């Protein structure tokens, strides 16, 4: 099985390591910094986005490993339009309910928990040790950082970022393009396009 990963970064290394844990045998990176960038850890960087699109037939599946939510989403759309088969990775050490739904292009890292009837949108990142409780709904290209906790029934809009160690109270609704600061406690709804931080979380900008 041969996997192409677009985005040669530290995040990409963890994606590749997760892919190997899932049984992928051959992994190649692509990045728009190529040819200046030729390796990402032990894995080769062999071309840019255009090269990947030309070589899609060489790979069983493709995954975008770019931390920026908007860029990741746009690259997923670009590759999808080109006919790429998008991978979904769930680390063997993650716990995902059989009643949860995880869309294509999402990666679930080690120690993450996704409980019953949670729905994860396209291109999500569920980072190391985070937890997504029952009935949560995450939009497209949402990043839940390591150790973050979403209680039951939380809704998170497209392109939002839940910072490391943050906690979100049950039934809270978080808008689109929101940034939640590290260690924050979110206890009320958050509108679109704002940054919040603190305990309890308050609007920063």
From TrEMBL:
Keywords: Acyltransferase, Repeat, Transferase
Pfam families the UniProt entry points to: PglD_N
Binding site for substrate: 9-11, 31-32, 67
InterPro entries: AcTrfase_PglD-like (IPR020019), Hexapep_transf_CS (IPR018357), PglD_N (IPR041561), Trans_hexapeptide_repeat (IPR050179), Trimer_LpxA-like_sf (IPR011004)
Gene Ontology molecular-function annotations: acyltransferase activity
Site residues (Increases basicity of active site His), renumbered to this chain: 135
Annotated positions binding acetyl-CoA: 143, 164
This protein's record includes keyword Transcription: no
Span of domain PglD N-terminal: 2-74
EC number: 2.3.1.-
Catalytic residues identified in the record: 134
Family membership: Belongs to the transferase hexapeptide repeat family.
UniProt-recorded name of the protein: Putative acetyltransferase EpsM
Organism: Pseudomonas marincola
The gene coding this protein: epsM
